[in-house]
Specification:
Structural class of chain A: alpha/beta
Helix content of chain A: 25-40%
Shape of chain A: globular
CATH topology of the largest domain in chain A: Rossmann fold
Shape of chain B: elongated
Strand order of the largest sheet of chain A: 6-7-8-3-9-10
Largest interface: A-B, 69 and 50 residues
Strand content of chain A: 25-35%
CATH class of the largest domain in chain A: Alpha Beta
Number of domains of chain A: 2
Order of helices and strands of chain B: HHHEHEHEHEHHHHHHHHH
Oligomer: heterodimer
Distance between the termini of chain B: 42 Å
Number of helices of chain B: 15
Number of strands of chain B: 4
Number of helices of chain A: 11
CATH superfamily of the largest domain in chain A: P-loop containing nucleotide triphosphate hydrolases
Largest sheet of chain B: 4 strands, mixed
Order of helices and strands of chain A: EEEHEEHEHHHEHEHEEHEHEEHEH
Number of strands of chain A: 14
Chain lengths: 314, 410
């Protein structure tokens, strides 16, 4: 058996003249948390839907859990769990009825279902609420119940399509804790998201833009390969004025405002610090702090999209 | 605490995963779907009331309102002759149950006002010299005025008047001839009319089976298309489609509960029809059940088919009403006889399942005939049911993707 849970080869999907996914190829290692990042409409959902057998590819192939998604979609379906941003539960059924329904849909034997039912209730923190109607649960609970229903049949691969939309930060953290535990237990997690802080929790990432993969690797590798020049975080007064000022300097690569600070990309760190301090002093802007920082995925993502658009002549 | 619980049972690797699952057959997954569907229906009493009570309610409304039996038509008479003969003649009109003589006018010009205010629908004017004309044998004209606003009721009234006048004049002729010494006279051609199946010519007998077809079709198509589109709106359809459940199992699981409920409401309609309108079931009950079952299946299939091409309940409702209400009302022979329609419209009616159901239903309930009389209709109903269900199973397999993309691209 290969070490890849998912192998995608030149997978494309066209809707009429519109190409949603353009010949993407990648492998997902078993047990990884694999992040598929992109803006809305970049092709994330279309890809995940093809891999889950909800959508037929226009061309290309993919193996999911060793099964061809075109030739044996039924086998693929039995090996995967799927949860979408809608937390697709029956709102007019109780918590337990929802779990039992999905158990029935996957043909689970009664004793297995009984033990997994207890597991899901425990995992989602829903013990004692078995008989509450699902519509009365908070978003965070619905999310964890939906996750429980998706992994009820113990799939080896879990697909999560923007799983944290509309959920408060505490519940989001709890949810990611669950995802990490599943991954530790050997489940491959394929997650699409546009929250870049969530992407930091992934082992492996693909950046997708306009149906094409524009970046690949772990979060740290991506940062290292994309942004080679140092980035300095500058805390100073009159930030907007300072940004306009620095932008005109030849030794400055780029400047952007992050919160109350400036992120300044420079050619070389030591010289950059010196020139920066001098320039601000000359303009009479008080300088409080300069620190070298590690670029965020947001920096990476924006740079990659820019580069790809330049290449495509857009 | 939560973390510990997650870690406790290990999740199997993907190769081991499916082993525990019983091999998924089409039918194994139908049961949980049926159970879930019944639960949802139970939790939503409004839908249940809609499904069960609406047929009865519509049956009452239509049964009493859609009445083509015109009786007690308000009649105004104007006797300008004022003789024994004219009084006898007008009295004859009043003794039937079809007309009630409400006004006796001195001046025929008053009829205008009565018609305008809807106080009378028909007026009969006997002109001066009626009795003289009668006895001279030169033919006595009378004037009949009709409010033709409602052409159907006016047409019926003309028929009644003509029949009454004819029988009255026949009687008078015989009387006159007998007075002149002719004995043992008889009418040369005497039609002895005997009406079969519906001797009292009650229109309820004709309308109730059509009404059942009409009501059932609407309910079945609307409710099933709703139940599927609702799942699409909530995203649960997608969740089921990523599971190993086959589309056919999903369709069967979703239709069985609605089929049973609509069969129940069909029986409520039958019961009401019998109790309130004395509509009998003269033929075989199993045959009736077969016809109803096939008709309902076709409607269920049509409902699911509609849901595969729509995304919201509003659109589903509109299409469902459009494809059931008009054809079933107009093209099924429910009210308007199909053979009087222009050829092209008749051709359309061949694609309306209610047309076949209706003639089977009337055959079984009113005529009490066996399957020999309408096996073609039954065959068509079966074909329609088979077609809609197969097509929707195929479409369901594809619809989720198309739908998902539509949502994404917006």
């Amino acid at each position: 058996m290969t070490s890849s849970s998912i192998e995608v080869r030149a997978l494309s999907k066209r809707f009429g003249a519109f190409t949603a996914v353009d010949a993407v190829s990648f492998d997902v290692r078993r047990g990884d948390i694999f992040g598929f990042l992109g803006a809305n409409g970049a092709g994330k959902s279309t890809t995940i839907r093809m891999l889950c057998g909800l959508l037929e590819p226009t061309s290309g192939t993919a193996l999911v859990a060793g099964h061809d998604i075109r030739r044996s979609p039924e086998k693929v379906k039995r090996s995967i769990g799927y949860m979408s941003q809608k937390f697709s539960l029956y709102e007019d059924l109780t918590v337990e009825e929802n779990i039992r329904f999905f158990g029935g849909v996957y043909n689970m034997a009664a004793p297995d279902l009984a033990s997994r039912l207890r597991w899901v209730l425990e995992m989602a923190g829903l013990r004692g609420r078995e008989h509450s109607l699902t519509r009365n649960l908070s978003q965070g609970w619905k999310q964890r119940l939906a996750l429980g229903c998706a992994v009820l049949h113990e799939p080896g691969i879990l697909f999560l399509d923007e799983p944290t939309g509309g959920v408060d930060p505490v519940s989001r953290r709890a949810f990611w804790d669950l995802i990490n535990r599943l991954s530790e237990d050997g489940v491959t997690v394929f997650v699409t998201t546009h929250y870049l802080d969530e992407a930091e929790s992934c082992n492996d990432i693909r950046l997708i833009h306009a149906g094409r993969i524009v970046g690949a690797g772990s979060p740290s590798a991506l940062k290292a390969s994309t942004i080679r020049n140092p980035i300095l975080e500058v805390e100073c007064g009159r930030t907007v004025e300072a940004m306009d000022l620095l932008r005109r300097e030849p030794w400055v690569r780029d400047v952007s405002i992050f919160g109350v600070n400036l992120h300044v990309g420079v050619v070389e760190e030591a010289e950059g610090r010196r020139r920066l301090a001098a320039r601000l002093e000359q303009a009479g802007i008080p300088l409080r702090r300069i620190d070298r920082i590690v670029p965020s995925l947001e920096d990476v993502f924006l740079r990659r999209i820019e580069d790809s658009d330049k290449e495509a002549g857009r | 605490m939560r973390k510990k619980a997650v870690a406790a049972p290990t999740v199997r690797a993907e190769m081991a995963g499916p082993v525990r699952m019983v091999e998924a057959t089409v039918f194994a997954s139908i049961r949980p779907i049926i159970r879930k569907e019944f639960r949802q229906i139970r939790r939503d009493p409004r839908t249940l009331v809609f499904l069960l009570a609406l047929p009865g309610f519509l049956l009452l409304m239509f049964g009493y309102a859609l009445n083509f039996d015109f009786k007690h038509i308000p009649l105004a008479v104007c006797d300008q002759d004022g003789t024994q003969a004219s009084r006898d003649f007008l009295a004859r009109l009043g003794t039937t149950e079809y007309f009630d003589i409400l006004y006796r006018l001195d001046d025929p010009r008053l009829v205008d006002g009565l018609f305008g205010r809807d106080q009378a629908k028909v007026a009969v004017v006997v002109p001066r010299g009626f009795a003289d004309d009668l006895s001279s044998g030169s033919g006595a004209p009378i004037q009949v005025l009709l409010d033709g606003t409602n052409s159907t009721s006016a047409g019926t009234a003309v028929g009644y008047i003509a029949a009454i006048v004819q029988s009255a004049s026949l009687r008078m002729t015989t009387q006159v001839l007998e007075g002149r010494g002719f004995r043992g006279l008889s009418v040369p051609v005497a039609a002895e009319v005997r009406v079969w199946y519906n001797p009292e010519l009650r229109s309820a007998l004709f309308l109730i089976p059509g009404l059942m077809a009409f009501v059932l079709m609407i309910i079945v198509v609307v409710s099933t298309s709703f139940s599927v589109v609702r799942e699409k709106e909530r995203g649960t359809m997608e969740q089921i489609l990523v599971s190993p459940v086959r589309p056919l199992a999903l369709i069967v699981g979703k239709t069985v509960p609605y089929a049973l409920i609509s069969l129940l409401s069909a029986h409520l309609a039958l019961g009401l029809g019998y109790l309130l309108f004395r509509v009998p079931i003269r033929g075989s009950y199993p045959l009736l059940l077969l016809a109803m079952g096939l008709f309902l299946l076709g409607g269920l299939g049509q409902g699911i088919l509609i849901s595969t091409v729509t995304r919201t309940q509003q659109v589903a409702f509109m299409i469902a009403i459009l494809t059931t209400l008009l054809p079933t009302f107009i093209l099924s022979g429910f009210v308007f006889p199909i053979r009087n329609m222009p050829g092209i419209i008749q051709a359309f009616s061949f694609f309306v399942p209610a047309r076949y159901f209706l003639s089977a239903l009337r055959g079984i309930m009113i005529k009490g005939v066996g399957i020999g009389a309408f096996w073609e209709q039954i065959l068509f109903l079966a074909a329609f049911a088979g077609l809609t269900i197969t097509v929707s199973a195929v479409r369901l397999r594809r619809s989720s993707g198309v739908e998902g993309e539509g949502r994404k691209r917006r």
